[in-house]
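Hi R.,

As promised on Friday, here is the backbone we talked about, encoded as structure tokens. Could you run it through your design pipeline when you get a chance and send me back a sequence?
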């Protein structure tokens, strides 16, 4: 749809490379149950964390196009890797051509905004995918807002596969969880707050807690991202009016329906969800 034509009204689109964005969707539905949502997981091509900038950008743009076709006026990239590698280009290059009246937002900025009130030592750690860490998006965003905060990152390339393969509670997960926490705290022993900068990681929270000293605050981003979206919709009534409110939620995956249904139920702690399989190109 081009500028000047009909303004679309429809569900809020929520996108992730796989299941991780369900931890964000869950918080949206808790805090804003009245809206309609479409969740899209690119499960067939997950993980994104080890892929190049070009590939993550291409895949994410395909997902945004699909959610626009499905009438979403607003799309949230509920994936740190996609937010780090694709969001800016989509906002600056693609959105003006696709439909300048719609919006695509990410999860890194809202998480960076909350950190100023949470750290006492002004030393913050980030655990995230290799892509997010290498992009330097968290240090850049945090320094823009809080120049006195020292930000140290640690890439955890095995954590998403552990979650996607439902191995996050297994004894085998201990090794990889402990290893990266130890590395992070060795790099900066003054860290008092650690951001889980990947939407898959809340599933590893119980394991992570076992290996992090109790004085360190662990920040899972779901609540902050949901508060930020609520605030955005309050400040943008013209967009709020375009987000439909029948309290529905549709699930789309690029993988098989059966596989998504089984795993997504674990993430959402609910017995049955109905899923549609789609392709992205
Ligand atoms: N949930 C994605 C994130 O927040 C995981 C990325 C991946 O697919 O590796 O970064």
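Update: got your reply. Pasting your designed sequence below so it's all in one thread:
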């Amino acid at each position: 749809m081009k500028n000047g034509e009909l303004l679309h009204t429809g569900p809020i689109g929520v996108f992730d490379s796989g299941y991780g964005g369900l931890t964000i969707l869950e918080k949206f539905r808790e805090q804003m149950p009245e809206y309609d949502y479409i969740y899209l997981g690119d499960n067939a091509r997950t993980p994104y964390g080890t892929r190049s900038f070009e590939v993550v950008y291409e895949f994410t743009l395909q997902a945004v196009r699909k959610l626009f076709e499905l009438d979403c006026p607003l799309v949230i990239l509920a994936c740190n890797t996609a937010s780090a590698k694709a969001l800016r280009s989509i906002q600056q290059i693609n959105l003006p051509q696709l439909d300048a009246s719609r919006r695509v937002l990410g999860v890194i900025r809202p998480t960076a905004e909350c950190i100023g009130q949470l750290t006492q030592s002004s030393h913050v750690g980030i655990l995230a995918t290799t892509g997010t860490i290498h992009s330097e998006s968290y240090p850049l965003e945090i320094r823009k807002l809080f120049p006195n905060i020292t930000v140290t990152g640690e890439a955890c390339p095995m954590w998403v596969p552990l979650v996607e393969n439902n191995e996050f509670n297994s004894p085998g997960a201990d090794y990889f969880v402990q290893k990266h926490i130890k590395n992070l705290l060795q790099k900066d022993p003054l860290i008092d707050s650690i951001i889980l900068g990947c939407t898959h990681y809340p599933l590893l929270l119980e394991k992570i807690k076992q290996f992090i000293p109790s004085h360190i605050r662990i920040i899972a981003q779901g609540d902050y991202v949901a508060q930020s979206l609520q605030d955005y919709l309050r400040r943008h009534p013209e967009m709020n009016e375009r987000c439909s409110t029948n309290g529905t939620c549709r699930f789309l995956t690029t993988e098989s329906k059966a596989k998504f249904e089984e795993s997504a139920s674990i993430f959402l702690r609910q017995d049955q969800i109905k899923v549609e399989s789609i392709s992205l190109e």
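One thing I noticed while checking it: The mean pLDDT is 94.

Thanks again,
M.
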